[in-house]
Amino acid sequence: MTEPILSVRDLCVDYATPNGLTRAVKNVSFDISAGEVLGLAGESGSGKSTVAFAIARLHRPPAFITGGSINLAGTDVLALQGRELRAWRWRDLSVVLQSAMNALNPVLRVSAQFADMFKAHGITTKADIRDRTADLLQMVGIKPDRMDDYPHQFSGGMRQRIVIAMALALRPKLVVMDEPTTALDVVVQRELLEEVAALRHKLGFAVLFITHDLALMSQFCDRVGVMLRGQLIELSTPTAMVAEPQQDYTRRLWASIPPLHPKPGETLVRMKETPQ
Ligand SMILES: Nc1ncnc2c1ncn2[C@@H]1O[C@H](COP(=O)(O)OP(=O)(O)OP(=O)(O)O)[C@@H](O)[C@H]1O
């Protein structure tokens, strides 16, 4: 493994509930290398999204980070405040969530949404912004001449492509993807992830990837972490995890993949390429 770009150490996240604090993430530690795709698997409620939101500093009360450290490319993520935190998001880390419609403003043209993001990061020349937007849309397979359309004029898959283009605009080091394709049909899901795989190969960003689809995860991720009741109980390559699971829970989790899916590591070779 190369030098880690992200280091998470002993991360603890609590939720304040009427019955007191509940620990949803318990001393979770892991690294992600530059350009690596790390998946988080585990049953619903095991803490995957809570980890992802904490890393992106998107957690809000009643969630509180109560321990540990997060370091991304030399930045102490938990120390970031205010303007510094806003500048860090998009530039060093970006997030792609399940619903593109929630990420995009329905009453603003796509070009205006790119412009807002660029302006917030000091890129203010109109021609420059339009050129960059055109390049980014092109990169995810959307014709640049559609940049002045509204989000509802695109299909769900295209909207998610636009969100991914925006997430990559400032060349972040890490992209957090929490169920990025869940709302899309199976064919579009795969197409989109193949594109993300090709883009990370080209651009070198790392991905923290969360999905309930273990088959998809095994094809897209270099390594997978398994979470159970707030703890990271196992972390290895999908192939090693299936061949020699260290925990009984992991074995049962992988055994749940329907046999119709391809075996881990067998298909979509392009997804497995290591960035240069
Ligand atoms: N707002 C909240 N208040 C209290 N507890 C919460 C809140 N949000 C989440 N939790 C609890 O935190 C734990 C972890 O939830 P989290 O959403 O991170 O799990 P997950 O693995 O991402 O689940 P899913 O796969 O369903 O998204 C769960 O026990 C959940 O009940």
From TrEMBL:
GO cellular component entries: plasma membrane
Regions annotated as coiled coil: none
One Pfam family of this chain: ABC_tran
Keywords, alphabetical: ATP-binding, Cell membrane, Membrane, Nucleotide-binding, Transport
BP terms from Gene Ontology: transmembrane transport
SUPFAM superfamilies for the chain: P-loop containing nucleoside triphosphate hydrolases
Residues of the ABC transporter domain: 8-254
Predominant location: membrane
Membrane topology, as annotated: Peripheral membrane protein
Compartment annotation: Cell inner membrane
InterPro entries, sorted: AAA+_ATPase, ABC_Ni/Peptide_Import, ABC_transporter-like_ATP-bd, ABC_transporter-like_CS, P-loop_NTPase
Listed GO MF terms: ATP binding; ATP hydrolysis activity
Family that this chain belongs to: Belongs to the ABC transporter superfamily.
PANTHER family named in the record: DIPEPTIDE TRANSPORT ATP-BINDING PROTEIN DPPD, OLIGOPEPTIDE TRANSPORT ATP-BINDING PROTEIN APPD
Protein name according to UniProt: Sugar ABC transporter ATP-binding protein
Biological source species: Niveispirillum lacus
Upper classification of the organism: Bacteria, Pseudomonadati, Pseudomonadota, Alphaproteobacteria, Rhodospirillales
